[in-house]
Amino acid sequence: MPGLRTVNFRRVVILLTLGWLGIFVLLPHLLVVLTSILTPDADHLAVWPLTLDAYKRVFEPIYAEVFWHSITLSLTTTIICLLIGYPFAYYVARLKPVWRALLLFLMIIPFWTNSLIRTYAIKALLGKKGLFNEIIMGLGLSDAPLQLLYSDFAVIFGLVYILFPFMVLPLISSFDKLDNSLLEAGHDLGANAFMRFWHIVLPLTMPGVVAGCLIVFLPAMGMFYVADLLGGAKSLLLGNVIKNQFLVVRDWPFGSAFSVILIVLMALMLWIYFLSNRYVQRQGGLDDENL
């Protein structure tokens, strides 16, 4: 029976998907939450009884500074990616298919190389004898090499380089859905270029903006190897704190508590993304019924 086979196949796929999500997504997260409320132990890493001491330590002033510094670096990275990526995505979305595919291919090529190796390449570029200092001194802008490595600038540079494609791809998708007839209608009604951008283009591409910011901001807070290699000891991200708690200090409950905070932050941003999508549809943007 064709119908019976279709139903059975569908059930099998759904069960396999739910099983995969349950084992590899839900269960690890539940273990992290459980570990965050256990008591640290030198021999067994985490033991009973349950306690909220790890969460109390998360909000201590020294970790609050790391948290704020991490948010500042990640937010700066996100803003730079957005300012560069928005016009870039607009330009790419309006190219001919051949040129568009070529640009996307060139943008994705670096992903064929491990991001850790690319970070080492950035370290070589920003060093005192690197390409950047050679250009600066060659142009006569400085007599001595600048200290670019082991600074917040180096960390932001590395994060922008690695995460830039994650901002561009959702934006290109949003620009693809942009209805040009709305821009033509705005022009016919007397709206100038800025008004058409502010009242038509920006609201309709807001889901791509929010999605890109989410995909860039959250990973930026956890890329500990970028801060380790390019920022030195002064530029810590939340990922560095979590890594150190698990691998160096061996305080798994405290590292898990930081991880839970990141998960909550991610859930909050997904909620903002959901609200932005609903706002666009209410404004008559992507939903054809509202046009």
TrEMBL record:
It is a multi-pass membrane protein. Keywords: Cell membrane, Membrane, Transmembrane, Transmembrane helix, Transport. Its main location: membrane. Residues 67-273 form the ABC transmembrane type-1 domain. The keyword Lipoprotein does not apply. It comes from the Bacteria. One of its GO terms (cellular component) is plasma membrane. The keyword RNA-binding does not apply. InterPro entries: MetI-like, MetI-like_sf. It holds the Pfam family BPD_transp_1. GO terms for biological process: transmembrane transport. Signal peptide: none annotated. It is found in: Cell membrane. The chain crosses the membrane at residues 12-38, 66-89, 101-121, 153-172, 204-227, 254-274. Belongs to the binding-protein-dependent transport system permease family. CysTW subfamily. NCBIfam families: PRK09497.1. This is Spermidine/putrescine ABC transporter membrane protein.
